[in-house]
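Researcher: I'd like a structural prediction for the single chain below. Treat it as a standalone chain; there are no partners to consider.
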Amino acid sequence: MSKSILLIGESDVGKTHYGAQLLKRLMQGDGQLRMNGAATNLQPFEAVMERLNDGRSAEHTPTSIYVDSVWPIIERDGGTADLVWPDYGGEQIKTMLSSRHVSKVWQSRIADSPAWLLLIRLQKLRVNDDIFSRPLSELGNPHQTQQELQVSDQARLIELLQILIYTSKATNDRPISGPRINVLLTCWDELSIDTQPKLALKRHLPLFSDFLLSNWAAPAVLGLSALGRALQAHERDSEYAARGPEMYGYVVLEDGTHSPDLTLPIKMLMSEIA
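Model: Treating it as a single chain, here is the predicted structure.
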């Protein structure tokens, strides 16, 4: 049975790094999921794994790239599936938002995926005042700059979810039964906080958090540090290379505890759509 998880994230949220580290974990077979045969179309992830093995971060995925890699996996209880994992340039999401147009290719991806994994990098989002928090009287002030009147990043994320919901033809019933959605707060090690991921999302993006919880029943919000610590693209981390990337990376579970099993976010979604 094919379980296609649509990985959704703008550029610079760590999609490719997570894919490469997840692939390593599946090949090792120490977690909840492991590889169950030969995968297809691994070239994008193999290139990233080579860089991580050398203690360097991966280069940015080109905007035009969208590659579906199919990974046959097996769960600890014996359940099997073909996991369809994508790698693509995050600018495609930004283009979808700016143009308010969903290409036919993306329409198919959205409609065919019973589960969505939304990657958000909190420290890259603007959380300052915007047109939703300023008094209406200020909007007519000619001295306000165009930059100050831009829609906030959390409002953009809400609009992205609205586009996805509409394109997927999800029912109007609330909470939405399908597609399922979970959220990964990426680069968790850069946040320097010690709290539950759902509380971190609520604190940083309260408007978006309320929208998410009002449309889906109990969506999981997890933290993720795919690399365990920051790496540079042109500067080698010798300690990282010596120990190996498989020794780094962790997931922050809903209760705030850390787990080295990077397959857990996928396992959770697979269980929900079984």
